[in-house]
Amino acid sequence: MPENIKVKIDSVSSVEKKLSISVPEDYVQAELEKAYRDANQKAKIPGFRKGKVPRSVLEKRFGPSIEAEVLQDVIRGTVTKAMEDHKLDAIYVSEIMEPKRVKGEGFSYIASIEVKPEIEPKAYTGVKIEGEKLVIDENKVNEALKHLLESQAVLKPIENATKVSKGNFVTLSVSDLTTNPPKESKDQIYEVGSENARKEIDQALASMKIGESQAVTFEDEKSKKKYDIQISLKAIKEKVLPELTDEFAKSVGPFETLKDLKDHLEKELKVEADAKMRSGNIRKILDSILEKNPVELPKTLVHHEVERLCKGVEQRMKEAGIEKLPEDYSHEKMHTQLQPDAEKNVHEQIVLEAIARKEDITVENEEIMNRLKQQAEASRIPISELKAYYDKSGGIEDLGFQLLVQKTLDFLLTKANIK
Fold it and tell me: What is the pLDDT of residues 64-89, one digit of tens each?
């Protein structure tokens, strides 16, 4: 790259700059010479051997395309150098305008670039908040113990059952009558009267006996889609909880007594409560800081964050067995709904980076490697394999940024005035 390119910077806004760049003619000529030499070695022109094609013939056949390609390379190289030399935190080169080359004088153009705004963060220490409070008492432990018991429950057939009652679990065969032929799903477990139960199905089951079938029609509240199904009652079961004894404690983990299990649950609940309190306090601190540090947001960063959030939603839906969005919930609607979250995330990122710079908060390579080791141990993957994956995907930089954010949040917590 030439050292003597001329750059004039005009600020359109805090997130947009226009760079007027002039490139010396001798540099453009040198790049053209390289391109013609390369074309001479590759060109296949009848009557000429490779490397022996006269320059005039090359210019006549390929001149405009060679010059256009060279000038594109010159733009890519010089705009990058200009941004680096002037320490512009560029996000995106949005437009190249007015490219102009005058032989003997040089080449010039204007680049419109999007940048991260430069801010001087304020009011980020001594933030006053009402601290989150979560108390783990015996009731919380007993509640966790109840959930654990529920997870270990078994369903047993009710002997001589003559009718279905609320709280029963029934085995059903379900036929979708809207398809031809009807699509049947066998051995479906359904809890009568549960939060997710349908009143139409509950009403039908109330009058059914084992072996009987009945048609049911209902409408989905969200999609307004009408369903016609036939249910066949195969079995009526009840949930049986295990007894709360030392033997139960031994069956669910490395515990000798029920007290050991309760102590473990209490410890886990306290760890979870501490994490929730930390998260809640951080949220309050950040909300206060963001309010006092308004920022113009780069459109490209917001767009990328919206896309990231959308992919996360779609991935979670896929993991839940939902292959596509509901008919009334388009990708555009998801974008619109997630836009405020994306804007807040980008706002946080810009402000936290500014605070980290001002407070000289950095992340050393050793810290990144330690986090990699932790992840490798947790996922039981060799650290060399995990690092190779991160290197290939560019994840090391993301990991470093995550650590920077974590250290900056830790700093803000220590400096906050939490009551």
Answer: 888 888 889 999 999 999 999 998 88
